Structure formats: C-alpha cells, structure tokens
Amino acid sequence: MKRMTNDFGNIIADNQNSLSAGAKGPLLLQDYLLLEKLAHQNRERIPERTVHAKGSAAYGEMKITADLSAYTKAKVFQKGEVTPLFLRFSTVAGELGAADAERDVRGFAVKFYTKEGNWDLVGNNTPTFFIRDAYKFPDFIHTQKRNPRSNLRSNNAAWDFWTLCPESLHQVTILMSDRGIPATYRHMHGFGSHTYSFINDKNERFWVKFHFKTLQGIKNLSNKEAQELIAKDRESHQRDLYNAIEKGDFPKWKVQLQILAEKDTDKLGFNPFDLTKIWPHSVVPLMDVGELILNKNPQNYFNEVEQAAFSPSNIVPGIGFSPDKMLQARIFSYPDAQRYRIGTNYHLLPVNRPRNETNTYNVAGAMNSDSYKNKEAYYEPNSYDDSPKEDRSYLEPDLFLEGSAQRHAPLDEDFYTQPRALFNLMNENQKEQLFENIANSMEDVNEKIIDRALKHFEKISPDYANGVKKALKK
After folding, report:
1. 194 is an active site residue
2. Catalytic choice (17, 118, 124, 352)
3. Measured between alpha carbons, how far is residue 284 from residues 195, 228, 265, 274, 319 in Å?
4. Per-residue confidence at 4, pLDDT binned at 50, 70, 90?
5. Catalytic residue status for 124
6. Is the predicted pLDDT of residue 86 greater than 80, yes or no?
7. Which end is more exposed in the chain, N or C (fewer Cβ atoms within 10 Å of the end residue's Cβ)?
8. Is residue 272's pLDDT more than 80?
9. SS3 248
10. Which of 17, 42, 52, 345 is labelled catalytic?
11. Which band of pLDDT confidence, cut at 50, 70 and 90, is reported for residue 369?
12. How far is CA 248 from CA 171, 194, 241, 252, in A?
C-alpha cells in the first residue's frame, strides 16, 4: 500500500478528520495539513472562483419586523432596522461558462452593509451540506470538477466519494430530489446552513440558524425540462433575475430564524454544529423576523458581481461563530481565496467596501487606493489619543471547550435518520423523480460503487433502495 503524504513527503496518518479541541471542536491552527489542503485548493485555478464560479446578483435590503433584542445586540437585527445588501446567487460545481439550469446546489451569499460594518452570510439553497469536516472539502470539490486526465466531469468520482462518506446522504437526497434544479434563483429558498452565535447586551450567547423562504413560491425543473431549457438558453437564471428586477417585479424572501439557548443544545440529540443535519422545526421552531427584497441590478457585472468577495469571517457585534468545523475552516479559506483571486486590498472595491467608518493600521499592498488617515501612530498599541484603539467591551462571552487535541472522528455515525425523514415527507411523484434522477446520475458509475450506494439507500428505507434499483433496471 502506498502511504499518503503531503507535498513535502510527510506521511498523513488521518485524512478524514481535522484537529480539534474535543469532538465538538473548534479547530486548531496547528493543523497544518488542513491549512495546506485549503490554501492549495484556493490556488488551483485562476482567475475564476474554484467553487461558485458562475453567479448572478442584485442589490436590495432587509427589514426586521420582530423584537430580537433578547437574543442579539446586533443593530442589523433590531426591530425596524432596514439594512442595504448585495446578494449573489451561484451554481457550485460548474465553471464560469456552465449552464444555469444544471443539477447542482445553488449558492446564496448575502453581504449586509450594516451600521457596524459588513456582515457576510455565505450560504446555499439547502440547509445542509455533503460533509461536516473541512478536511474533506478539497477532495469533495475535486470529485465535482473535471478529471485532470480526461478533462471530463465524472459521475463515478462523485458517487465513489459520496458512498465512502455516507454523511453526504442527506444532501445527496436533496440534490437528487425534485428541488435539485431550481427553475430560477427567485423561486428557491436560501439558508445560512451553518450554526452561528447571537450575543445579547447581557453577553449571553444563543445558537442561531438563518433561513430565507422565497415568497415567489418554489418552482423546479425536471431533467428533461432543464435539458430543453439549456439547449435554448444557458443563462436562464441570470436572464430571469435581471429582467424581473428591470421591470419592477422585485423578488422577496421571508426572513426566519431558529434560535437555541446555549444550555439547550442537548435537546437536539446530536451535535448542533453538524452541517449535514438540520435542526428539526418541532424542537427549534422557525421565527418570522422580517423580509428581504432585491430591487436593483448591478451596473457592471465584472466590477460588482465577479469581484464581489464574501467571507463568513465578516461579522458584527452581536453575531458570532460556532464550533462548526466547516464554518471554522471557511473563516480562513474564503478571505484567503479572495486575496489570491482579486488581491490583498479586495476590501477596497466598491461592492466589498463597508459603508460605515473604518479605522485600521493595515497599509500598502497592491492596488491600495485608500487614503491614509492615521496621524502620529501607524501601529498599535500607541500613546496617541487621536489614534484608533481596541475596545474590550466588544469581547464575546467565554466559549467553554473540553477534550484532547486529536483528529477526532464525528460524534455520531447516524447517516440515515434525517435522510429517512426527508424521504418519508416526499409524495409518490417526488419519490419517482428522486429515483430517476439518481439513476440518471449513475451513468458510467462502477458497479461496485452502485452496489455500495444501494446498501446505503437500503438503510435509509427499503423503498428508497428498491425505487433506485427499479430505475436502474437492476
């Protein structure tokens, strides 16, 4: 057996689990293998994004209608607050020239220009994801991209990875369902997907998930409808969004939250920071808190959409992170990708620039167009009253951690309960579409990989496995 190594020949003992402080995380900066993988992935292609390459976007605003002051001090979530925003939709796996109406997860990234700085919520049109540890992310994305030898997309690679990482079954079931190809960007939901923190003015922490429910209604395409549409228009989603806004048919989403007290995480019965799982609404109900609207198209696609740079590291007081391992890694990976893709000073581009006052000691770097504001001090700490200083009143409450530093495996191997619940919610027509979509996606897939997939489907539900078998004519 060949031993796996990194680029410098160092043997890799575990390529499945990142280093974390305890099984629930958070991650440790000393995990140089994770950082190497993520940093290398960010530099694999130029100049387009390695994922979410093709996108459409618009400006708008979010208005909060509920009193959330008990949960967060963030100004963006105070009742009556109206916050300007920029929302970029995207396909995930395809390149810049990919067709809009392909079966794929859709990105749903929102940049809120709040009074306290930019807050970026980088999500998808699904509440879950394929993996729960970012250590696997570069490998997963490789399976969605082209084979470096043939330069072709590979169903075999995708299903090989999915069946060897059964935590992906929940997201795969969503992707292969009737919702796997949204008809337009306007007719799909958006989710923050990760678990985040809310912090109130008493310095109490709550865990929160963000939901955006389309008020246009859900509309999806079958494989046949998508193929016919792509033959006529590869930019169908871009065209629909742009034209709708141009004629004043502004798309809207209901803003909803799930909020869980820090002491109540055990109510879920599983790791609340596991990105492959949803929080059941019966345990953590959805709260209606406001509305999001898109009402203005960009004037220059390249300047505003292609150069838009999002990162979950951009947060504001009252909103924080969680020990979600995927979120923790994205805090590094996203801004690192932007620095590589569009430069060190990408934050100075108009679409990325915050609309509140900024005071920083970061200077110079390529394409720095900012005016220099500091006087005597160009460093911190310093002795000058007119120079920016830290403000420790904004420190977050302690997050208590436990456990040894190790490459911890996930806390559970329940890969089937939530996919089963989703499958049981489907009507017969939706199930038939699921079976056909999976069968179509298994073209040219190795028989042993198909058999492995069927064993997983059997554990979700015998009806699931039998339906796929029938569609495969096995």
Report:
1. no
2. 124
3. 13, 41, 10, 15, 19
4. confident
5. yes
6. yes
7. N
8. yes
9. coil
10. 52
11. confident
12. 34, 33, 11, 12
